[in-house]
Amino acid sequence: MKNAFIHDNFLLENNYAETLYHDFAKHQPIIDYHNHLSPKEIADDKQFNNITDVWIKGDHYKWRAMRTLGIDEHFITGQASDKDKFKNWAKTVPYTMRNPLFHWTHLELARYFDIYDMLNEASAENIYNETSEKLNTKVYSCQNLLKTVNAEVVCTTEDPTDTLEHHRTIAKSDFSVKVSTSFRPDKAILIANEGYNDYINALGKSADININSFTDLCDALKARIAYFNAYGCKLSDHGLNQMSFESFTASEIEQIFQKKRNNKTISTTEAEKFQCATLLFLAETYHDFGWIQQFHLGALRNNNKRMLTALGPDTGWDSIGDYSQAHKLSNFLNALDSKDKLTKTILYNLNPADNEVLATMIGNFNDGKIKGKVQFGSGWWFLDQKDGIIKQLNALSNMSLISCFIGMLTDSRSFLSFPRHEYFRRILCNLLGDEIKRGELPNDMEWIGNMVADICYNNAKSYFDFKL
Q: Which of 431, 436, 441, 448 lies in the 20 to 30 Å Cα band around 322?
């Protein structure tokens, strides 16, 4: 028997919202233009051993919740059995109410496994056994999981040194979902990081270029962009605390690069100059190749040094940063625009205090040449929950045109995360349906419904222009 919690009109509070969702949003294909899925697992059409394998491993959202409840690390990232890890997650779930994990968990159980029971300690054993049994059938392979949610395009994220062998394998197969990638060159930009020189050596090997100068570095990056482009890549992505912008000369950048290559300490100002020069070079190159660039701004990473040492990065020790964003971002975009080298750009913020900053910033550089050329990206990371989504939609509506918005993405490492698109679509439709009910929007379901369809699918399809 289906539990009443997840039902057809979940999050839809009136008839207008229901009509918008069911008639205009629900059946739109998914273009997931930014995620961290494994292309190898897609190419191999991997089948997962059990639900812990596909659902809990690598999910630092869940890990943070479990730690907060007092679950020992042994049952999170430690050596406990997969079943015991799942049972401890099930124990945690009832305590996640009002956290998006509570909604996501039950949406994912419903959409992938047709399970509508509440997950808790009492139901854990049966749900573990039922889901694990299903996962061991071909219907639940990676490729079929993507087909199940009506995914049309998914874009993974790869380093410039990646060979793209798995993307090439997928492209040669008969898999109906287009799998592309985005180019993420952060390790080549962040010169103050430990291991920078080792990375530059690896990049040079990938590009077949001896990187002895900044010019060589630029040549290597351009060669890898050309390589990615040859295999259908159309996007780049950058994860930065804030945009770098500082005046520099070519000789300064060369001196800074040589200083680093000689293992000398780089000052904060020197790092800022180098990062600015490298980012500007990359952004101009993206424009030349007709790519779209993405900037994820505002994360404060690796706060807990003790746990970082024990478990490594991306294990749940990051939070929202309070960096100043507006001035340097404006200068960076203006430097590109002044040379007519500003390509399509998507800006994401992690600090909700920057919503209006980015919502107004995009208007400075939307010059009428392309619909929605510069985008205020969807709620990201800590903000891809109901409140964060609504605040992003409201800021975008108030200060730009929500009708031009390219919609949601998962930004996830999990093959079970795609109901986040449904979650976003329900929230969007309820927001608009509520305003129709209050008389703030006209009762023109055809016009508003078509706008919903555009936000959920059509705008992204046109903006990215993937060759399907």
A: 431
